[in-house]
Amino acid sequence: MISISIWSVFTAMFLGTAVALAFHIAVQRDSNMFSAGMTPWIAAFVMLLVRIIIPIETSISFVIPSRIVMTGLNDFLNSRIGNVISIGSLLIVIWIAGAAFAIGFWGYKVLKNRNSIRLLIIQGKELPKEYAFIARSAGLDPKKIVMSEFIEEAVSVGVINYGVILPAVDYSDLDIRNILFHEASHIKHRDVLTKMLLHLASCILWWNPVLRLLEVDFEMLSERRCDEAAVRGYSQEEKISYIETMKKMAVIRAMKPYGYSVASFSGITQKRMLVSRARRVFFDIRTDKRKNSVIIMLGLVLLFASYVPVIQPLYDPPYVEDEIFITEDNAELIEYSEGYRLYVDGEYIELIGKEEIGTEPYCDLKKYKK
Asked: Radius of gyration over alpha carbons of the chain, in Å?
């Protein structure tokens, strides 16, 4: 049985936040951790995102009792404001209102950017014919590539029908080759759609800042993956030319006006990030499919295992006649036709109605038939 409870949401938030922060630090590090290729990292990113946005619990979930933190949190959420509404209900209303506002505002920006992009495509010039062969070799339709004087970076646009817009500047053949193969990788992996879905999740879970960090992480991972695809088979001299193109586009690019509607060649332009990408271009990428498969399978096992624990509040067990404590260790229920008889330490205490069996503490006790 699969269900969602407030405690599975909190468990996903606590566990997901801790893992996401560690993942964010690893992604932002400039190290050789990526030398085996980007596939395991993209897979780990997807699994982490699933764990955060799908906070379910199952019949095999194991309850981790929390006597202080969760108990205090539960009491706080159940406390009422002027006997009108509980704090928990009020927070849900605020959550829904905040998500509706975030989605509406973002939708307005997307529509506005869509109109701007459409104008850029209409007013843009066709890709020069001498570059058509390079576009086709990258798997792109030359007719869907335009050059515009009103854009500062090379970008791929569109969710269903793609397009590529290049700044109207002078390019060498290697520049065009580097840019188009990079953008072709964005299009192949539908990075624009992924970015939009990821930001939609950020709007829905607007109160969780971890989703914002994951947006930054995905942009970095996608740029590294596209760099890796673009320079595959390059010589050292050609890799140097790729970095020169990257620097050239970073200089041209003064701002990023289209937010979540595009995927771009220059990507994240902070100096440290550019240096990290440039160093990665020179990595000797040796993709070990068997090793990657093992890593991904291990990640899936950890993902499913992460759904087993659920943190819930633990209160002191109730007692009968202010003397007898009822716990799983000292009490049991025996079923009779009229209900269940409660025995504590082997002594009969009282008859429990069948309608009460599903409530605490009786739901946790062992049940036997006469």
From this structure: 28
Tell me the three state secondary structure of residue 144: helix
Half-sphere exposure of 200 (CA within 13 A, CB side): 9
CA–CA distance, 243 with 31 (Å, rounded to integer):
18
Our measurement of the distance from residue 8's CA atom to the centroid of its chain's CA atoms, rounded to an integer in Å, reads: 17
Give the pair of three-digit tokens for residue 197.
């879905």
pLDDT at 238: 87
Give the pTM.
0.76
pLDDT band at 4 (very low <50, low <70, confident <90, very high): confident
Q: Which two tokens stand for residue 162?
A: 């793609």
Q: What is the pLDDT of residues 126-166, one digit of tens each?
A: 999 999 999 999 999 999 999 988 887 888 888 888 899 99
Strands (DSSP E) found in the chain: 62-66, 80-81, 85-86, 125-126, 145-148, 155-157, 163-167, 262-264, 309-313, 319-320, 324-325, 331-336, 339-344, 347-352, 366-369
Q: How far is CA 215 from CA 24, 198, 257, 332, in A?
A: 10, 7, 17, 51
SS (H, E, C) 298-365: HHHHHHHHCCCEEEEECCCCCEECCCEECCCCCEEEEEECCEEEEEECCEEEEEECHHHCCCCCHHHC
Q: What is the C-alpha to C-alpha distance for residues 294 and 314, in angstroms, rounded to an integer? A: 38
Exposure on the CB side of residue 128, measured as CA atoms within 13 A: 11
Separation between Cα atoms, residue 5 and residue 363, nearest integer Å: 18
**Residue located via tokens 């503490």:** 361
Distance CA 112, CA 109 (A): 5
Reading the block at residue 104, the tokens are 């509406």
- Contact in structure between 54 and 246 (CB atoms under 8 Å): no
Write down the residue that tokens 């070990």 correspond to: 288
pLDDT digit string, tens, across residues 173-219: 899 999 999 999 999 999 999 999 999 999 999 998 888 888 988 88
Tokens of 301: 């096992």
| Spatial distance between the Cα atoms of 360 and 326, rounded to a whole number of angstroms | 10
Distances from the Cα of 219 to the Cαs of 31, 150, 222, 259, 268, in angstroms? 17, 24, 5, 11, 8
Distance CA 318, CA 152 (A): 68
Nearest to 154 by CA among 258, 280, 229, 233: 258
